[in-house]
Structure formats: structure tokens, C-alpha cells
């Protein structure tokens, strides 16, 4: 039995990590923050770690022997209503990652 109020269609998304940052917010408006919920963490440089700490990040992981991390498992703390609230200050890997759909 098909329930008409439930949308059973799925959108297939593909992630691409670009060589250079893509500061075009149009793709981000389309996906609703799918990438911000799809990974356990984001690697950060020391400068990014410090910037996010100054912005109030509470899910940072400091490492003496590897990359510092922003834990985004179950959704990035800066994702609100499908939008990045720190878009201008987001980490490099977030700037280079884009989603495409089929």
C-alpha cells in the first residue's frame, strides 16, 4: 500500500573534492547540508581550529599527532535549517567539497 503523504523518491548524491575552493553558494542551497551530516569529522589546520574555537565550536578535537578535527557526526553544529551559519569562515575542505545529483 502506497501512502501518498510520504515521498518515496530518493535523490542520489555524489560528493566531489575539488582542487580549489568553490565559493559559489548555489550548490549548497540545493542540497540542504547533506555533506554536513554525511561524515564523522572534518580535518582542520591549526588556523581553522583556532578560528572555529573563536566562533564557539564545541565539538573540536585537538591532536598532538595528526590533524585537528571538527566532529560533525550526526550533523555539524554550525548547520541550522540546512544552511551553514559560518559559510564565510568554513574550513578549506568544506570550501572544496561539493555535492552533485543524478
UniProtKB/TrEMBL annotation:
Source species, domain of life: Bacteria
InterPro entries with a match to the protein in the record: Puta_zinc/iron-chelating_dom (IPR005358)
Pfam family, one: CxxCxxCC
Protein name: Zinc/iron-chelating domain-containing protein
The organism of origin for this protein: Geobacter hydrogenophilus
Amino acid at each position: 500500500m502506497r501512502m501518498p503523504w510520504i515521498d518515496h523518491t530518493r535523490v542520489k548524491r555524489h560528493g566531489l573534492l575539488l582542487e580549489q575552493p568553490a565559493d559559489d553558494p548555489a550548490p549548497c542551497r540545493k542540497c540542504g547540508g547533506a555533506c554536513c551530516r554525511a561524515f564523522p569529522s572534518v580535518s582542520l589546520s591549526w588556523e581553522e581550529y583556532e578560528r572555529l574555537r573563536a566562533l564557539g565550536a564545541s565539538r573540536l578535537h585537538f591532536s598532538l599527532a595528526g590533524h585537528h578535527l571538527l566532529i560533525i557526526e550526526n550533523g555539524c553544529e554550525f548547520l541550522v535549517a540546512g544552511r551553514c551559519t559560518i559559510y564565510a569562515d568554513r574550513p578549506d575542505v568544506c570550501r572544496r567539497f561539493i555535492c552533485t545529483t543524478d
